[in-house]
Amino acid sequence: MAISVTLHILAAVIWVGGMFFAYLCLRPAAQAVLEPEQRLTLWVNTFDRFFVWVFIAIIVILASGYWMIFNEYGGFKGIGINIEIMQVLGIIMMLIFAHVYFAPFKRLKRFVAARDFPQAGKNLQQIRVLVAINLVIGLATIIVAAAGPHLLYSMDMN
Question: Which end of the chain is more exposed for a tag (fewer CB within 10 A), N or C?
Answer without folding.
Answer: C
